[in-house]
Amino acid sequence: MIRFENDYTEGAHERILKRLIETNEEQTPGYGMDEHCEKARGFIRKECEAPEADVHFLVGGTQTNTTIIASILRPYQGAIAAESGHIATHETGAIEATGHKVLTLPSEDGKITADQVKELVDAHWRDASPEHSVQPGLVYISNPTENGTTYTKAELEALNKVCEACQLPLIIDGARLGYGLASPDNDITLADYARLCDVFYIGGTKIGAMFGEAVVIINESLKKDFRYLIKQRGGLLAKGRLLGIQFETLFEDGLYYEVSKHAVDMALILRQAFVENGFALRYDSTTNQQFPILPEYVIAELSNNYSFSHWEKVDARHSAVRFCTSWATKKEHVEMFVNDLHRVCIRS
Amino acid sequence: MIRFENDYTEGAHERILKRLIETNEEQTPGYGMDEHCEKARGFIRKECEAPEADVHFLVGGTQTNTTIIASILRPYQGAIAAESGHIATHETGAIEATGHKVLTLPSEDGKITADQVKELVDAHWRDASPEHSVQPGLVYISNPTENGTTYTKAELEALNKVCEACQLPLIIDGARLGYGLASPDNDITLADYARLCDVFYIGGTKIGAMFGEAVVIINESLKKDFRYLIKQRGGLLAKGRLLGIQFETLFEDGLYYEVSKHAVDMALILRQAFVENGFALRYDSTTNQQFPILPEYVIAELSNNYSFSHWEKVDARHSAVRFCTSWATKKEHVEMFVNDLHRVCIRS
Amino acid sequence: MIRFENDYTEGAHERILKRLIETNEEQTPGYGMDEHCEKARGFIRKECEAPEADVHFLVGGTQTNTTIIASILRPYQGAIAAESGHIATHETGAIEATGHKVLTLPSEDGKITADQVKELVDAHWRDASPEHSVQPGLVYISNPTENGTTYTKAELEALNKVCEACQLPLIIDGARLGYGLASPDNDITLADYARLCDVFYIGGTKIGAMFGEAVVIINESLKKDFRYLIKQRGGLLAKGRLLGIQFETLFEDGLYYEVSKHAVDMALILRQAFVENGFALRYDSTTNQQFPILPEYVIAELSNNYSFSHWEKVDARHSAVRFCTSWATKKEHVEMFVNDLHRVCIRS
Amino acid sequence: MIRFENDYTEGAHERILKRLIETNEEQTPGYGMDEHCEKARGFIRKECEAPEADVHFLVGGTQTNTTIIASILRPYQGAIAAESGHIATHETGAIEATGHKVLTLPSEDGKITADQVKELVDAHWRDASPEHSVQPGLVYISNPTENGTTYTKAELEALNKVCEACQLPLIIDGARLGYGLASPDNDITLADYARLCDVFYIGGTKIGAMFGEAVVIINESLKKDFRYLIKQRGGLLAKGRLLGIQFETLFEDGLYYEVSKHAVDMALILRQAFVENGFALRYDSTTNQQFPILPEYVIAELSNNYSFSHWEKVDARHSAVRFCTSWATKKEHVEMFVNDLHRVCIRS
Fold first, then answer.
1. What's the pLDDT tens digit per position in C82-103?
2. How many angstroms from the chain centroid is the CA of residue A278?
3. Residue of B nearest to A229 (CA)
4. Are D252 and D258 in contact (CB under 8 A)?
5. Which of A41, B182, D22, D330 is the most exposed place for a label (fewest CB within 10 A)?
6. Which of B96, B133, B309 is facing D101, going by the closest CB pair?
């Protein structure tokens, strides 16, 4: 069984493993106060061209989203997000568990627009009794989105502008940020992210690390006491060095970009194969997730040797499915798959 | 600088590192549904003589305590704990953040007694209007305690009995469980824990693993939907295999016991050295934490080469301090320290 | 200015005032343990033909919804409701503030169907990883709905059936329950409510009382410790007798039905006037709320002497507006309004 | 049975009842936006010499404490209070239910000192890892305290000073504020309260009103969006006018002070009677609550005709009990009690 079901099926990039072994006997202070974390922070600040940014390391995505959002909102405020946003759908109500509503916007492709945000905010304040509704308190997007699509720099600038006008922090879930950076369509740099949003994070779990998400806080007013929140939400890893070592390795000489590019290259091979075999794509993704719409019999055939996830029923005979590649995807597996796909399609 | 400041200053036991490397390229399903987790569960169930137990793996202690407690209590219930308990003091109010009060009992040495629990519960129900106070909903202890002390089997049986009588689940924070098992005073087995409490966990972070806590749910009525809670609280590690692999290694052939014993052996050498030099011990610990009361000038001298933590001011010229050993403590470091301690004491 | 803007513009029915005066100097125990509460409970149990029901009195609707829902759900569960449901829109995220998501269903008229509930629940359990989403934990409806529409007994029975099949408690927000009972289309009795749902409440605030909502808990398993929750959520009125006295008066000899009927009679006069003047109704309501779609100039004219609420823009020249009647609506005001409406319509 | 068990055994002062009747048919906007509320706000601002203060009306004390505290704290902060404080003991964990720990200080008489606050705050910031503990976020006191004792102006000024130095808002629970103002020992005015704290409230429930607490927000930075919090916590009364009318009546011409004085006068008669009969007082209260230590046989005798509350067992043969007077206490009842007390004491 070759797994394309998600982008965390393997352990970690070999250079990270190597570094973990080399540093294993070092004695360091706990909770992210060690030198590896400090060095990793430096590398990230540099990439972001944000020397004043606060950088914190957490273990996983749900934890990171919850901690960031809880650090920003007052109790009666909510987070604006696409209805398909991770915080709206796949975190078991973690945001609600911190007391906050997710205010959802309809979205066909996982993205939301500046106009949508503006209209939701305006509608709130137009209400004669706004205090009877949840007040919009921040805007959450992820890039790439749950559907593999990406924002352009122009779209991000428009969101930044509307957020400033509405006095709403803009936060970006970057669990797959590297795969966005590596997209052939991408025109956004880490420095742009730092310039255009208030808080974002750089995902490691899905991109080369064993685990780990690096939170970058740009907005000065959101920096205060963030470590209290990490600790309270259970995200302050005792051996914080493990996070520092991983992000140090990913960012000291471009490994993060390199492995991201590999994953996207592999995904584009898959994409081409689906298109060449005449299959439509549910979303127009040029990142590491691909969503072909396949006939059920093709799905059944492929499932014998490959794992991938069901996305949605399209009609009686077709479903959209999701294939993920990652830093760890082997080219020979992709080629084997492409061959098998051709074979299945020709045969039928 | 040689660090005795806590028991998580190094990475992980070499056998765990080795296993992580060997398995690194395996492709596994996420979120703890892989074969390594399944095997680790089997080993733990066997050690606990609890074939029906549910076993879940989480990353860290605060997260684990919060998740267990949130899974048990109704909104108006609280957790009974020693006033020095970890959930009462060192988790930034994580329990309160899930809506629950910690109902504290005074404790000199970190332990609470069955009688104390009974009296607190009785007092609640004696009240003419109990619904105006937080209802006791469970009993939380840790073994060893924050002070390195341990419960005897008789004490644990008494707590079990009173908890049953009061219909309160008994949960045990085992972040340092191995160091308790390895204490020369210990008369409790893992099977005893499984027999005498409702939920407990076996700490890995401080005992050989990079990170990880294995939750063992014994009480049938507390098993339902626990994974939802893990996910909601941000504790469901994407690459759950990392936890499975570590606990598999720790429990397949006794490594957990072996490294625990090493740490306690090292601690007892420290203990003896303090006693021989005429220093009192703040708590009578036979586990991996030692709390000597030292003159300030001794503390100052030792601090040049060793890190350890300030515990409390005892009088104008003395403080209690904490030394931790761990699975990773090197015997030569301990011997060096003992020599240095003698030297400092003789000189003065 | 004559107010049709909501159904709580006046104080309380004169018989309630009278009873408050008569009983004012009585000394009673606090928190609902007095004889008036006990008598009121008896009357309500009798009307509901539910001698075993628990009856509790709370002050207002948001508080009541929050308390009921918090008493039922486990932390990772959510409440299914219409997207226009009060808990989804007009309680400032009170449900989320207790940690729970509102799982919304689309609704044109404020009602949800048994089929919709079934499909949402089935979709949750069909998911390969249901623990990544909020688990449906109860079904919330209000009757009448926010749009003045009502469920038929058949629809309620269907909901009851699907809830039983899915093991979800069915709770009914009855803030305007009396106005539903008084609708000419109604075929549901209080006894039916008690038979078909797990918890419901009988609104007093909008129906004759100064304030107060009577919660009726039918399901045995949901009765435990409800008073703790009322107290914790700030809903346990010190002078609980005030609630007892009001519900005693409303239910000892049918006053509740009588004043409800008056309000609906007044609303139906308004309805007829709108229809006769050629206006469409946004919702087909036969309860105390009417939602005509009026031209902006008619709205402007009427606004000089009458207050009512803007509901939604329908097109460039029309808006739906809401008129409420209540137990306190004076017939001469309604007639004056009808005349004014005719005049405005004729003139233009 | 004559009731001294609490200070909310009767309905409301007759002038309040009268006003409720007079205004009953007025039509007003909901939620505190009516003219009665506005007038009441004006009276209160004037008494407080705080023309810029925000004044909000809520129904009960627990709700008010919870709403104020939730409006101030960030998620990882706690409220400093006496261990006997109402929020620490008698609100079923309502503060914890909003996610916040109550940080308790020992107290013999219900009061806390500026020095205690300073020491707790200093200890937090002295900690090498403060983010592992709950951060002190505000100071809560009540005046009078749960024990009937009162703060002097000098003590309040000292608290104000330490709170400013520590940048902690000082909030005062004034559920019995009037009874403090009426104490013969009192040297604090409403204007002093407004000058010396950030938020306080003026209790109506126990002092003449049917129900109601008037929150006065002095600190500009704490005013924002308070109505959202009231609504979310279920405290926004639909017929807000009921609160406005009551506080208007209490404050338009000094009724609040007048009824408060009556209650304290009655309490001092009780106090004198206890002292004259040789009984010690558990707390030195000159407000409306008295805590005599009585022999069990005296308690038993008196219980035949009077209700009062058990406070605590003092020794095998004595208990402290609590007697409350209120605005509604009848002088003849007090005199009857004094006679009965003498009789019981003489007989034995």
1. 999 999 999 999 999 999 999 9
2. 29
3. B92
4. no
5. D22
6. B96
CA distances in angstroms from B270 to B296, B312, D53, D223, listed in the order given: 18, 19, 62, 57
Contact A329, A338 (CB under 8 A): no
| Residues in D touching C28 (Cβ below 8 Å) | 3, 9
Confidence of residue B347 (pLDDT cuts 50, 70, 90): confident
Residue type, B101: K
CA distance C119 to A92: 19
- Are A237 and B211 contacting, i.e. CB atoms less than 8 angstroms apart? yes
- Is the pLDDT at A348 greater than 90, yes or no? no
Q: Which of C64, C91, C234 sits opposite D94 (nearest CB)?
A: C234
Name the minimum distance, in Å, from the CA of A277 to any CA of chain B. 27
Interface test with D, best of A72, A98, A225, A226 (most D CBs within 10 A): A225
Q: State pLDDT tens for residues A264-291.
A: 999 999 999 999 999 999 999 999 999 9
Summary mean pLDDT of chain A: 97
Kindly determine whether residue A228 and residue D76, on different chains, have CB atoms separated by under 8 Å: yes
Using alpha carbons, list the distances in angstroms from residue A185 to A192, A195, A292: 15, 20, 19
How large a percentage of chain D has pLDDT more than 90? 99
Q: Which has the closest alpha carbon to D177: D140, D202, D209?
A: D202
Mutate to test the interface with A, among B3, B5, B6, B8 (most CBs of A within 10 A): B8
User: At residue B341, what is the residue type?
Assistant: L
If pLDDT is split at 50, 70 and 90, which confidence band does C347 have? confident
Mean pLDDT to the nearest integer, A292-311: 97
- The answer, as to whether pTM is greater than 0.95, is yes
**Closest chain C residue by Cα to residue D227:** C92
Residue A347: pLDDT band with limits 50, 70, 90: confident
Q: b/e for D122-158, b at 16 or more Cβ within 10 A? A: eebeeeebbbbbbbbbbbbbbbbbbbbbbbeeebbbb
The three-class DSSP label of residue C70 is helix
Chains that touch B (3 or more CB pairs under 8 A): A, C, D
Per-residue pLDDT tens digits for A75-99: 999 999 999 999 999 999 999 999 9
Nearest chain A Cα distance for residue C249, angstroms:
31
Nearest CB partner across the interface for A96, out of C89, C96, C132: C96
Two tokens, residue D278: 């040789």
Answer yes or no: do D231 and C94 touch at CB < 8 A. yes
| pLDDT-based confidence at residue B240 (cuts at 50, 70, 90) | very high
For residues A49-66, one letter each, b for 16 or more C-beta atoms within 10 angstroms of the residue's C-beta and e for the rest, the string is: ebeebbbbbbbbbbbbbb
**Which residues from A are below 8 Å from C99, CB to CB?**
93, 96-99
Q: Are A248 and A22 in contact (CB under 8 A)?
A: no
Q: What is the ipTM of this complex?
A: 0.96
3-state secondary structure string across D173-230: ECCCHHHHHCCCCCCCCHHHHHHHCCEEEEECCCCCCCCCEEEEECCHHHCCCHHHHH
Alpha-carbon distance of A324 to A83, in angstroms, equals 22
Closest-CA distance of chain D to residue B92, Å: 4
Strands D54-58 and D213-217: antiparallel
Closest CA to C53 of C178, C166, C189, C191: C191
**Which residues of chain B are within 8 Å of residue D96 when distances are taken between CB atoms?**
78, 96, 99-101, 134
- A191 is written with which tokens? 């420095």
Position D347 scores a pLDDT of 79
Q: Shortest CB distance from D225 goes to which of A70, A129, A135?
A: A135
Nearest to A70 by CA among A243, A202, A199, A240: A199
Q: How far is C348 from chain D (nearest CA, A)?
A: 30
